[in-house]
Amino acid sequence: MTILDILHFPDIRLRTQAKPVKQFDNGIKTIVADMFETMYKAPGIGLAATQVNIHQQIVVIDISKEKNQPLCLINPKITEKEGLEISEEGCLSVPEYYAEIKRAERITFTAMDQNGQRFEKEADELLAVCIQHELDHLKGKLFIDYLSPLKQQRVRNKMKKLAKKSKK
Ligand code: NI
Fold first, then answer.
1. Distance 144 CA to ligand 1 centre (A)
2. What is the pLDDT of residues 14-73, one digit of tens each?
3. Strands 71-82 and 85-91, how do they pair?
4. Measuring CA to CA, how many Å separate 131 from each of 20, 41, 109, 127?
5. CA 92: distance to chain centroid?
6. Largest Cα–Cα distance in the chain?
7. Which of 8, 48, 49, 159 could anchor a disulfide with 54, C-beta 3.0 to 4.6 Å?
8. Which residues are the active-site residues?
9. CA of 90 relative to ligand 1 center, distance in Å
């Protein structure tokens, strides 16, 4: 398995719209395995293919403490949203930055597994937030897009500083 490079804001490639997966072959299984490996190593609770510069609709998630509940969503769609919840979010593409974001509290979603089998599920709390965050990535959207322009500028400045530091 390979650890993939994670793109960081403001990398323009994070703005790419991911395309639906049409062929469920070994190539897809390799991407999914590499994405899980990359997410666990980071460590993070969710990763969208967009973040590793693969522009297909693939998301991996594991919100469990023991890291033993891997969830892979291919061609995912949210079909119902209910309620509102504000919680603190972070993102592997925006390191060391956290902000409170408003999301739906409960969602119903459909997705395909690695074999192309479609399923439907409900999610709430952290899992619902995580799915909404990751699905945004597939549309080229970041959680900081929900912030005020002033806050977004602060994030930009912070990322510039971080990039300089990591080059040294
Ligand atoms: Ni993210």
1. 10
2. 999 999 999 999 999 999 999 999 999 999 999 999 999 999 999 999 999 999 999 999
3. unpaired
4. 17, 20, 9, 6
5. 8
6. 47
7. 49
8. 134
9. 7
